[in-house]
Amino acid sequence: MSKSLVLGSASAILATALLGTTAHAACTAPVAACETAGPGALALIAPDRPATVVVADDEDEGVLRAAADLRSDIASVSGVQPISATFMPEHGDGMVIVGTLGASPLIAGLVKDHKIDVTGLKGQWEGYVEQVVDNPVPGVARALVIAGADRRGTIYGIYDLSAKIGVSPWQWWADVPPQHHGRLWITAGRVADHPVVKYRGIFLNDEDPALGGWAKARFGGVNHKFYARLFPLILRLKGNFLWPAMWGRSLWDDDPLSARIAKQDGIILGTSHHEPMGRSQVEWHRYGKGPWDYTKNAAELQKFWREGIERRGNAEDLVTIGMRGDGDKPMTQGTAIPLLEHIVADQRKIIADVTGKPADRTPQVWALYKEVQAYYDQGMRVPDDVTLLFSDDNWGNLRRLPAPGATRAGGYGIYYHFDYVGGPRNYKWIDTNSIPRVWQQMEMAHAFGADQLWIVNVGDLKPMEYPTSFFLDLAWNPGRMTLEAMQAYPEQWAAQQFGPAEAKPIGALIARYGQLASRRKPELLEADTYRLDNGEWANVMRQWDSLETDALALGAKLPAVDSDAYYELVLHRVAAFANLHRLYYAVARNHAEATAGNEAAAARDAEAAKRYFAKDAAIRRRYERLHGSKWVEMMAQTHIGYTGWQEPPKDVLPDLWGVAEARAHAAPSRPPVCTPISQHNASDAEMIGGDGYSWQEVPGLGLAPAAMIAAPVTGKPITQPGGHSPRLSYDFTAATPGTVQVEVTAAPGLDVRGHGQQRFAVSIDEAPPRIVNLLVDDSDRAWAQSVIENRRIGTATLSVSTPGKHRLSIWLVDPQLVFEQVAVTPVNVACTAS
């Protein structure tokens, strides 16, 4: 039995979500896959009749490989192996004709005969057209033609069809079974698409012990066999770019076949932000002579870099320029602008010498990561053809963006993180990314004009399937991913993996998980993260218990064939993170009971903590044994027992106390709980626009049910708020006059304009607004606290003149700020302990 009618591609999924159509209604869309026939539709799949895939044998190697994947995909969906043809058959049904404009005689003939419409396709980066054509040649009544503007355009058109008929991009990487169809039609019409962000990719990073251990067990290492599985996934997700695994590894040096396959498949390679000129860090350790120091060893470094450009040959690969210290560390103390400018000039001379072309003919990128951004902020510049790659703070908050409207030949890009090794602690174990937050930050990047290169650090890739899909779908066309489309994305993605029957509740689970998981990274979770005395721990635990209960119930409804995919994509992360919360909740109760002198209760909680610790290991074993132990070692990342920023060598059960041990520990100092007289989610406001600004409510962004953002995000600050300027207003009642503290919780964003300000203003009734700057404390300590808690809090002390009803207003100043919650608390009033 088939699972559904499927649209499959990101563009079709998002268009359907926007229109609010059902799968059946989507069959009226052009070039959609449907189980019922319509006027002019192509019968792609029919019982006992194979489809035919036609692609010229002199096509690009990457196109030929993708066409072979399409034949395999059609077979997996239909149960019938398609016919492979290299020239136009004289007759046939269910025909798909594939080729690249300017390279395929098949496509050239159809264009010459005015059978297909390729308007605007020529010269378009990675564009493609899909069109159902009547009578493409004598004897063939109807065919689907896929024509690409270039080889990757053709490849994307091919994989778009695979997704439409029911083959997930994650078929191999998450064991998602194909959606079977006995009959399938492709509706009449034409669709055309092309990317907005030019380079769209992922960075495999921090790959040991999990990804590295798995690759060694599965393939013998991170070698060409591994990459031969990875490259098609990137292309199916409509990405084109990769920073490969790098810690102790070199894609080029470890197995030269890897780079050769990348070039054949159409994957553009690069090297990470601290690996210049196409050379991996480990290669310097293997072959370099002398120190990694340009002031002392320029000749050897130039020789090393020249070999990297020579090895690149005529590949499309982006060349990273600049220099950081060995091992992803600062190059020098302070800001060495003259030195780095000299290095870049020498590197560009090498590029020109080796290629025999001006340096601006070779695509280059300068990564403004960590301290390198300070070079840029203090005036360092590189030639206009170089792409400037801005970065987040490693925790999903963009640090800097170009001025709105700024242009340069090389454009601007973003390096983003779903995984990180560094302070305040690593986060590497499982997916903890809030898609609404990713959307808000990357939509802001697009609005500011950073759309040349988007690359995201996905760590071990698994279990980052969902955010990776979202990031690359967003990169394909940020303008298409509206707020409504982003909200519909979880359900649409769930439908692509599991069919429509349970897509809505599964999508809701995925969204709930993302919001809960982003509250606190698992590596940062501890017994005292939440309070016992005011019920905070119990409330958090209820949320995780409810989520896991729902996830288990939904999993029980799915066909057995979906069980592995469901565990990998949904249930594992819910069960694993819920269990980790139970572990620390039990430890918190153990400490409290031991401190209170209750030996028996402390012992019961200690035993519970031990069970949850053992269950953590059992959850790992279950994951790794899926699909015939396909994923052995993939969940090997340690995550329990951190004492500093770096991971422990093994998971360690937290300290458990008896009454005697509790006496050795000082009772934790807890501030009293002050009950607000008024508390609101930011979205509860009366939303008042003005000065060209409007408000948007973004469900799932941050700690509250929804956050509030202003549009346009590129607008100028409102430096004198008040009057008719935009604001969020709330009513509250004061029992007595007096002084109150207004507390505004915002997302932990940074000032992408470089002024060090994230400001809002606050007022009560008709009093003049008082401006508050969330970034007034720019210390590392304040930043670390903001990312640990996933929030920044700004406060203002104001006066309430009379008892009764009052009006609180939060005024817009800087439009990049994301508002989450608002509270009003009396000052100089005794607070309770619970």
Give a verbal description of the structure:
- It contains 22 helices and 28 strands.
- The chain is an alpha/beta fold.
- The chain has 4 domains: 10-193, Chitobiase/beta-hexosaminidase domain 2-like (Chitobiase, domain 2, 2-Layer Sandwich); 199-481, Glycosyl hydrolase family 115 (TIM Barrel); 522-663, Methane Monooxygenase Hydroxylase, Chain G, domain 1; 678-826, Sandwich (Jelly Rolls).
- The strands form 6 sheets. The protein has an 8-stranded parallel sheet.
- Helix 1 (10-19) crosses helix 15 (483-498), helix 6 (224-236) packs parallel to helix 8 and helix 15 packs across helix 16 (503-517).
- Residues 1-25 have low confidence and may be disordered.
Ends apart, CA distance between termini: 56 Å
CATH superfamily of the largest domain: Glycosyl hydrolase family 115
How many discrete structural domains? 4
- Highest-level CATH class of the largest domain: Alpha Beta
Q: What is the makeup of the main sheet?
A: 8 strands, parallel
The neighbouring-strand order within the major sheet is 12-11-10-17-16-15-14-13
Q: Structural class of the helix and strand makeup?
A: alpha/beta
- Indicate the CATH architecture of the largest domain: Alpha-Beta Barrel
CATH topology of the largest domain: TIM Barrel
> What is the mean pLDDT?
94
Overall geometric form:
globular
Number of strands: 28
Helix content: 25-40%
Q: Given the structure, what is the number of helices? A: 22
Strand content: 15-25%
Radius of gyration, Cα only, in angstroms? 28 Å
Low-pLDDT ranges: 1-25
